[in-house]
Amino acid sequence: MKRFFGFALIVGLLSIPAFAAKNSQSLNLATTVKVGSTSLPAGDYKVTWTGTGSSVQVTIAHKGGATVTVPAKLVDAKNGHVGVITDGANGSATLQTIELDNFNLVLTGATAQGE
């Protein structure tokens, strides 16, 4: 019985990083996009989200650059890819939605931090 509990404890501890990585994703922006009043240049970003249910807080971070935090709606979708949807009105691309494998993060507003 002790062996079983020891094995269960080891498996549980090894699975913690997998659960932590569940709420983050790498994202590549091919062009400059606006999020709120912040322009994010093309490059690689880390997207993280926190919250429960469909209302979440999304943070888009670029190493050495601005961090943007925005409220969003988490919407189930079977995309099978990672991508973005932008709105090109007013002559600049504004980030509207981040598409991830199994859901979308539909942005609803933004504040910039660490510019």
Can you characterise this structure?
This protein has 115 residues and is of the alpha+beta class. The protein has one domain. The chain has one helix at residues 2-20, and strands spanning 24-29, 33-35, 38-40, 43-50, 55-61, 67-76, 83-87, 94-99, 103-107, 111-113. The strands form two sheets. Strands 1, 4, 5, 6, 7, 8, 9 and 10 form an eight-stranded antiparallel beta sheet that branches. A two-stranded antiparallel sheet has the order 2-3. A hairpin with a 3-residue loop joins strand 8 (94-99) and strand 9 (103-107). The longest helix has 19 residues, at 2-20. The model is unreliable at 15-21 (pLDDT under 50).
So what's the oligomer here?
A: single chain
Number of helices: 1
Taking the sheet with the most strands, its summary is: 8 strands, antiparallel
* Percent helix range: 10-25%
Dominant shape = globular
Uncertain segments: 15-21
- How far the N terminus sits from the C terminus, by CA atoms, comes to 55 Å
Q: How many strands?
A: 10
What's the rounded overall pLDDT mean? 81
Order of helices and strands: HEEEEEEEEEE
Number of domains: 1
Give the C-alpha Rg. 17 Å
Structural class, please? alpha+beta
Report the sheet-strand fraction: over 45%
